[in-house]
Amino acid sequence: MERSRYHAGPLHDLQRLEDDENTEDTSWEKYKLKELEKEIQNLTNLRDKLTWELEADPGKLLQRLLNGDREQNERELASLGAHQEACNAITAAKKSKVMHTVNLYRLSGTSIHQVKKNVVRLMFDTFNRGSFFETYYLELEGSKNLKVGSHTLPHFIPIKRIADQHLNVSLQLFAQTLMNLLNAFVARRQFIRDLQNHFLDHLEEEINCSQSCDFCYLSLIDFPGLEIPLRLQLMFSLDKCHPGQIKVKKLSKNDRDLTETENQILSSITKSLFAAQMPKITPVN
User: Fold this and answer.
1) Cβ distance 200 to 193 under 8 Å?
2) CATH number of 109-186
3) Can you give the residue ranges of every domain in the chain?
4) pLDDT by residue, tens only, the chain of 285 residues
5) Angle, helix 80-108 to helix 58-67, in steps of 10 degrees
6) Residue 271 and residue 203: Cα distance in Å, rounded?
7) Most buried of the four, 36, 76, 180, 237, by CB within 10 Å?
8) Phi, psi angle pair for 245, to nearest 5°
């Protein structure tokens, strides 16, 4: 019996990678296959959680009481147990509404909370590839002329420059600029981790990078088609998740120029990296 085919989403990607695995055995394809299996498991867990919440929805009890006959409802609530059940349902419904509101704010990336008079706190929930990562905080002080107070943002985020440009002109633009920089940092960090896994069998050592992940280098050895070990230096802008510049350095004492085939392979690698994609590793016979 032929299995069902999916045309989009994680299940489609998983089937495609399973098909590819039969014809091409690469460490990167195996890594992506495992990542997709994890994503599908997360989606399955989320489905089960939502199903449970739906079945245990306190709103069902409240809806029945609101739509039912008044005298019948009063008789049902006359017992202590039924009255307590209704009170619990009301409390649970209020908590559920608050949590849904919080999640909606999280999905937007930035939320704001009053800390005390003339002090508000911005909360930045970083997000990448369907997952939340670190949450950063920044407090703003003042009423008319705002100024930055304490914060947990990384030291490489140019808060003062951004505040001077936007804070007292457009709070929304100020917050969005910071959010973009934080999400770009998280995306670069994940991209470099993907590079580490992708080139795992062809690295002389672990990929070295700066704290802001705007600079890293990887030393390639025994790469199919490249007889000379090479070092690739990747440089990023703080607001970008893909490199803006790539420098290549030969690690061998051999001064010969790269062959045409080696140049083609190197060009393919750098082209993929500029697009923040993983280069294809094809064994050379």
Assistant:
1) no
2) 3.30.457
3) 109-186, 202-252+259-274
4) 445 555 555 555 556 555 554 544 455 566 667 767 777 777 777 676 666 555 555 555 555 555 555 555 555 545 545 556 556 655 665 555 545 555 555 556 788 888 998 999 999 999 888 778 899 999 999 988 899 999 999 999 999 999 999 999 998 899 999 999 999 999 999 999 988 988 888 898 999 999 999 999 999 988 888 888 999 999 999 999 889 999 988 887 777 888 898 889 888 888 888 877 777 665 543
5) 120
6) 19
7) 36
8) -150, 140
